């Protein structure tokens, strides 16, 4: 009896979503407002950083889906994952709403994650690991791009508002990358190592996967863990040329509703 071949990915399944384009447009306009120093510059920083953060979340999920597509899971096209539309994710709450909320409340890049990959279609442990790694690697690239003006020394003439916003955005990307690479069930880091574990270990760990992110979040409330984590974040950012001064003022501008003193020139 002949077996049915997987459906090819249609052009419409790859077309960039108007939702993503709208988010990108808002980010660009807000970025111009930050650069120009509009009167409501705090609001402009908020919209710019939030918009860019959502764009990075979409690219994170797209990287998972695109890598899965080239590894054998053609179902990601029909699910809409290749359109960069955040509304197509399995859990939009986990992938978009909660990460944005945590940025607003705490200034931390909480990893999301809600593209369903049909792992049974994929052969080879390396491919499974690469699919999981593709998302946080996108955050690494985004962090390097945001920090490029700092480590390249090309900030002369850049308005301080824009500089601080870029620094804070780089911080979000670094925190997301570090958290996502933790080998904790439910996070991408565990997805990287899981294919190399024995079936027995995977079965034992599986029940804890839904609670991995909550456990990490709870640990970050412990002062010693929090200091160690952000010490690592600051060390990485320092290596990229982004100072604590930049990220501090970026966060202050972002949380404009708290009010802020006069922003220093640099």
TrEMBL record:
> Topology versus the membrane, per the UniProt entry?
Multi-pass membrane protein
Cofactor requirements of the protein: Zn(2+)
Name its cellular compartments: Cell membrane
Its main subcellular localisation, reduced to a broad class, is membrane
Q: What processes in GO biological process is this protein linked to?
A: proteolysis
Gene Ontology MF terms: peptidase activity
For this UniProt record, give its keywords in alphabetical order, as a comma-separated list: Cell membrane, Hydrolase, Membrane, Metal-binding, Metalloprotease, Protease, Transmembrane, Transmembrane helix, Zinc
Q: Which residues cross the membrane?
A: 20-49, 92-117, 129-152, 164-184, 205-222
CDD domains assigned: S2P-M50_like_1
Tell whether Zinc is among the UniProt keywords.
Answer: yes
So what family is this one in? Belongs to the peptidase M50B family.
The identity of this protein, by name, is: Site-2 protease family protein
Taxonomically, what lineage is the organism? Bacteria, Bacillati, Actinomycetota, Actinomycetes, Kitasatosporales
């Amino acid at each position: 009896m002949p077996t049915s071949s997987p459906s090819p990915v249609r052009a419409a399944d790859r077309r960039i979503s108007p939702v993503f384009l709208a988010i990108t447009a808002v980010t660009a306009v807000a970025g111009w407002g930050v650069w120009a120093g509009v009167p409501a510059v705090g609001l402009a920083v908020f919209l710019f950083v939030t918009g860019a953060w959502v764009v990075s979340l979409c690219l994170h999920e797209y990287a998972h889906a695109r890598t899965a597509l080239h590894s054998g899971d053609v179902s990601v096209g029909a699910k809409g994952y290749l359109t960069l539309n955040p509304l197509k994710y399995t859990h939009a709450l986990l992938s978009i709403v909660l990460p944005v909320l945590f940025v607003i409340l705490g200034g931390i890049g909480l990893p999301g994650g809600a593209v369903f990959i049909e792992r049974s279609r994929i052969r080879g442990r390396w491919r499974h690991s690469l699919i999981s790694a593709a998302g946080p690697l996108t955050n690494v690239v985004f962090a390097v791009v945001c920090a490029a003006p700092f480590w390249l020394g090309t900030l002369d003439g850049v308005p301080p508002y824009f500089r601080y916003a870029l620094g804070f955005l780089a911080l979000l990307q670094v925190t997301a990358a570090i958290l996502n690479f933790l080998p904790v069930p439910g996070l991408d880091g565990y997805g990287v190592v899981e294919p190399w574990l024995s079936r027995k270990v995977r079965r034992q760990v599986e029940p804890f996967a839904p609670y991995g992110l909550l456990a990490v979040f709870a640990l970050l409330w412990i002062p010693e863990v929090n200091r160690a984590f952000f010490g690592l974040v600051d060390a990485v950012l320092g290596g990229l040329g982004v100072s604590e001064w930049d990220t501090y003022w970026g966060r202050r501008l972002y949380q404009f509703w708290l009010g802020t003193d006069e922003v220093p020139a640099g």
